[in-house]
Design a protein that fits this description.
By secondary structure, this protein is an alpha/beta fold. The chain has one domain (2-254): Rossmann fold (3-Layer(aba) Sandwich). It has 10 helices and 10 strands. Strands 5-4-3-6-7-9-8-10 form an 8-stranded mixed β-sheet, sandwiched between helices. Strands 1-2 form a two-stranded antiparallel ribbon. Strand 8 (232-235) and strand 9 form a beta hairpin. Helix 5 (88-101) runs parallel beside helix 6. The longest helix is centred in the N-terminal third of the chain and has 15 residues, at 2-16. The two termini are 25 Å apart.
């Protein structure tokens, strides 16, 4: 049963996870101390959360097509938002991670409904943020979110994986910051990881969403951690961060958050 397994995984994580104390890696200690545990309120939180609340109460209906089929369904935007939004504390952490790492470029895979994109943009406003959303209907939701936020510097793209997304990846020399949302599909998570891996460098971070959402995602996360190019992983249960730092001792961290 999903809820029982999820609760068990959360309990095990809580028991085994550490806080900032006892971390022997200076980099990870600084990341946890100054970024993860920075709970000070920021103006951007208030602004973006107003937009989140607007999405969660939006009663407009859109028609969604299923990839590769002629099937379609109608959903309220509020339902789409509820299904795709992360916890506010996770979006706000992603904002702080972006501000800490100061990437020159960021790639967000599956940008709907645009809330996370706004947090990333605010964290690293000088970065080239590429936000890809495969479905044109949900692309429209993100586009509307950016319009309401009066942000026009996020490069929001839509199109098929086999065409638009592959061209996007192939055109990039390197990737500094990649947020991978595979909609809790383990094959998708591994596919995006393997596709983006050749573009990673010593200062790159890959961030995976929903690493314990189901058994398959947990298995995919273990495969990602075991990749020989990975040097450091940080697991906070809701998301997992992957680093490729030269000279860093190979280690996996579970952090209370």
């Amino acid at each position: 049963m999903f809820n029982l397994r999820f609760a068990k995984d959360y309990l095990l994580h809580s028991v085994n996870a550490k806080n900032r104390h006892g971390l022997h890696s200076p980099f990870v200690y600084r990341l946890v101390d100054t970024v993860f545990y920075d709970f000070e309120a920021k103006n951007v939180y208030t602004d973006v959360e107003k937009l989140r609340n607007g999405l969660l109460t939006d009663t407009r209906t859109i028609t969604l097509t299923e990839p590769g089929t002629e099937n379609y369904s109608s959903k309220k935007i509020s339902v789409v938002a509820e299904e795709t939004l992360r916890l506010p504390k996770i979006d706000q952490l992603l904002h702080r991670v972006a501000a800490f790492l100061k990437p020159a470029n960021m790639l967000e895979i599956s940008a709907c409904p645009g809330i996370t994109s706004l947090y990333l943009h605010a964290g690293a406003p000088k970065a080239n943020l590429l936000a890809w959303e495969e479905k044109p209907e949900t692309f429209d939701i993100a586009q509307d979110t950016f319009k309401k936020a009066k942000i026009d510097t996020i490069n929001l793209l839509t199109g098929k994986y086999d065409t638009t997304f592959l061209r996007l990846i192939n055109a990039l020399d390197k990737l500094d910051f990649v947020l991978i949302n595979s909609h809790h599909n383990s094959k998708g998570a591994l596919k995006y990881f393997e596709l983006c891996l050749p573009k990673a460098h010593e200062k790159t971070v890959f961030i995976f969403d929903g690493i314990y959402h189901n058994k398959e995602m947990a298995q995919a996360w273990n495969k990602i951690k075991a990749n020989p190019k990975v040097t450091v992983t940080v697991d906070i249960f809701w998301i997992g961060l992957v680093f490729f730092r030269d000279g860093q001792a190979r280690e996996d961290f579970k952090i209370k958050f």
